[in-house]
UniProtKB/TrEMBL annotation, chains A, B:
Keyword Phosphoprotein found: no
Transmembrane parts of this sequence: 50-69, 75-95, 107-127, 133-152, 159-179, 191-213
Family (UniProt): Belongs to the aromatic acid exporter (TC 2.A.85) family.
Protein name listed in UniProt: Aluminum-activated malate transporter 8-like
């Protein structure tokens, strides 16, 4: 039997090898198809990538003309090379990136060129033998100091490339071995070709299908809020409805878009850095408060962390919560997350349309806070005698984290409101038309706090009458709803 | 009174202005001092920054000698410039960064130079008039295609700089307007100076106080685990002890070191990218599984998200949990977080010392899982009739998230174990000496599940006898402790 199986193995091996050889052309074909697909995907993910590539090609071809237009070539000679070099190195995806690099390069070249000339002159005072030593020391000191300055976060963020070019130009000029009067001509040629290359890049990046870093940041923040909103709006439905089937454990039906927010910090920061270099464009003025977007981004990340924690809790496949308890908190939890979702959606729309979010978002914030208080009452009301705390816990934890999310969403709402004031968003004119298609909604479905037979340490037991308030989406309603949560004398109100 | 206050305001204003003028030299001094302080801080945060700056200065000075050593200068002429350029652009903080850029630059220059020569030859076939047009088209196409390729994540991660230099060199060579035989000389000069500059950088970065990206990644991952451990080890003490004072709400006493882990993804990825370019160094061989560190890093981030959620819950200043209930779960929760912390610390040490973590970490993983099950029993045992669920919730949520953390830590432990196998960590030889100074510790403090008068849907009520098992830090103990959690027939065990 052992020999038999070895023979079989061998036969299988050779069959497999032959199959692989025969499959080679097919594999090559598959490889080509997959490469073509990934090229298509990269292009489709962001069609501006294709435009950008064509723009770089265009800029480079334009600058190359320097070499073919005799009159220009005679003026600049080999220095024309610097124009090509500048275009390749300076042309970035966003306008802000291109501007930042061009301006950094221009100023750094000018400054370092002047300093280099000075250093050359200074060194020449030391005579034929002293000159190289003095120049060597100067280059060493300046290069070391400038390199060290690149470790400062502020310089790193804005002038990193400038410092690099500064070291480069200073060393080249100081060390080149030309005499000073020759150098001035050379420096002039080089600076003008760099300016020419930089200007070509700037003009093309601004006027041919521009990609504004500021606009990207603006859209990225709005879309992050939308991703959070999508999760939260769908959350209640998926979590509470799917509990009877086994679909809940897998957590597959929850949209996972929010995960991209978790690691969004670095890209947001670089966009904000670039955005500061950009001139006013579209709806954004020159001094648009770009830095404030980072604040909203950080809060959105905070919210995403909470969602990640929820996802961790409900993703654990062996949680079997008490259905009875889940049913009790379903209403308030679903409303909390739905209202948070609506708030975030309203904020995202307000950022997108650049209108003041106050009335539209605030209604939902108030509703979500009301729902949060409802949850508290539902928790108080839940009869616990016959329930197992371990079975209650998963759903209770979800509720508890949702409370944190409500707070986080409120902060986001405040931050967006601040942004709207800093950036002079338009005021909304007609308040009641925020979402006219929405049917009037019961804010409080009426929760009765039963008389518990507990010990009297913490809670006076109060019977609360049923309130049914029809929401018409104005911030006053939220306040009206809050009225029944005014503490009765002697009753301790614990917010969750 | 109104006039009076205006006069006072004026007087105050002038006094203030005069004070500000007088304070100018003082302000300048303060500014200088603060700058000096920040310089000192940047240097002290990582002393290797200073070394790096000096190394760049050294490399640049060495390469500049090209211009002064007559025999070399006569050989290369102005092309010596490319050596300076290469040093400035290529010298990175880590060895891997420098190698990656040097090699990218070298190969890209060679390839693009050859292609450029080909393009020049090809274009010359079209005659005097056709040549610039053909060259223009070629440059446009190649630049556009190469720029587009930079959007592919794999190329972006490893060959971004190479592609840039490829475009640069190709354009320069194709467009330069030299005849082909002149170009060959030029290309040869340029390539050799670039190699010279690159080699200087590589040698200095490898042999003068090298900063290895791989070692940095290795240390960063270990220190991240340690930060998590510090939080978790201290957590129980701070959270449960401070509850009687008002210090809990502020959350100030929790170490906030873990926050830096939340956004560690990009830096870890770039380190891992650079590490792949590095030769074997110190305890790391050439094909060290650097990619696997990213997996551990991702799990550590996952754990940090959970901690962030906990921090959110306990940071809310208006939570007033039930002390009674907190007391009931204190034991198991404190043990869970402490054991998780110990696990992580053991894993961090095992990474640092490159020894197999199996026995040391596994003991703690088992203990934390045992504590997790204890928590379940504690929850079942907690008498809920007289407690308010809203008051219980904060502590219960903390417990519930801790359970998630235990699972996450277990995954981290598995990942580190995998790493230890992939990277051939040394096996531990003497098992019991892992932490000999630690006093024997009660793993289970004996939790009695009382007979509850609940409904009989879910739980058969079982009286569990008290176990007191002295831990001697061997994995078998964990199993022994688990024995009392073996389900009785008919009893449903729900893991948290």
């Amino acid at each position: 039997m052992d020999i038999d199986s070895t023979a079989q193995d061998k036969a299988r091996f050779f069959a497999g090898a032959w199959g692989r050889v025969r499959a080679l052309p097919g594999k090559l074909k598959a490889k080509v198809t997959s490469t073509a697909k990934s090229i298509k995907k990269v292009g489709q993910d962001d069609p501006r990538r294709l435009t950008h590539s064509l723009k770089v090609g265009l800029a480079l071809t334009l600058v190359s003309l320097l070499y073919y237009a005799r009159p220009i070539y005679d003026g600049f000679g080999v220095s024309g090379m610097w124009a090509v070099l500048t275009v390749v190195v300076v042309f970035e995806f966003t306008v802000g990136g291109t501007l930042s690099k061009s301006l950094n390069r221009g100023f750094a070249t000018f400054l370092a060129g002047a300093l280099g000339l000075g250093a050359d002159y200074f060194a020449s005072l030391f005579g034929k033998n002293g000159e190289p030593i003095v120049l060597g020391i100067l280059v060493f000191l300046l290069a070391a100091a400038a390199t060290f300055s690149r470790f400062f976060p502020r310089i790193k963020a804005r002038y990193d490339y400038g410092v690099l070019i500064f070291i480069l130009t200073f060393s080249l000029v100081a060390v080149s071995g030309y005499r000073v009067n020759e150098l001035v001509v050379l420096a002039h040629q080089r600076l003008s070709t760099i300016i020419m290359g930089g200007a070509t890049c700037m003009l093309i990046s601004i006027f041919v299908c521009p990609v504004w870093a500021g606009e990207d940041l603006h859209k990225a923040i709005a879309s992050n809020l939308e991703k959070l909103a999508t999760y939260l709006e769908g959350f209640g439905g998926v979590y509470f409805q799917s509990s009877d089937s086994d679909g809940m454990g897998t957590g597959k039906s929850f949209p996972q878009g929010y995960k991209s927010i978790l690691n969004s910090k670095s890209s947001e920061e670089s966009l904000a850095n670039f955005a500061r270099w950009e001139p006013g464009h579209g709806r954004f003025r020159l001094r648009h408060p770009w830095k404030h977007y980072l604040k909203i981004g950080a809060l959105a990340r905070q919210c995403a962390y909470q969602i990640e924690a929820i996802n961790g809790c409900i993703g654990s496949d062996h949680i079997q919560g008490s259905e009875e308890f889940k049913g009790k908190i379903e209403g308030s939890c679903t409303r909390m997350s739905a209202e948070c979702g609506k708030t975030l959606k309203a904020l995202a729309i307000s950022i997108k349309t650049m209108t003041d979010p106050y009335s539209s978002a605030n209604t939902h914030v108030e509703s979500s806070k009301a729902a949060m208080k409802d949850l508290k009452f539902a928790l108080k009301a839940a009869s616990l005698e016959n329930a197992d705390l371990a079975a209650i816990l998963p759903a209770a934890t979800v509720g508890s984290i949702l409370v944190e999310i409500v707070k986080c969403v409120e902060k986001i709402s405040e931050a967006v409101h601040e942004l709207s004031q800093l950036a002079h968003f338009e005021k909304e004119t007609v308040e009641p038309t925020v979402s006219p298609e929405k049917p009037p909604q019961l804010l409080h479905r009426g929760i009765i706090q039963p008389v518990l037979d507990g010990d009297s340490t913490a809670n006076d037991n109060v019977v609360i009458t049923i309130h049914e308030i029809i929401s018409t989406d104005s911030p006053e309603n939220g306040k009206a709803c809050d009225q029944h949560q005014v503490p009765k004398p002697g009753q301790k109100i614990e917010a969750l």
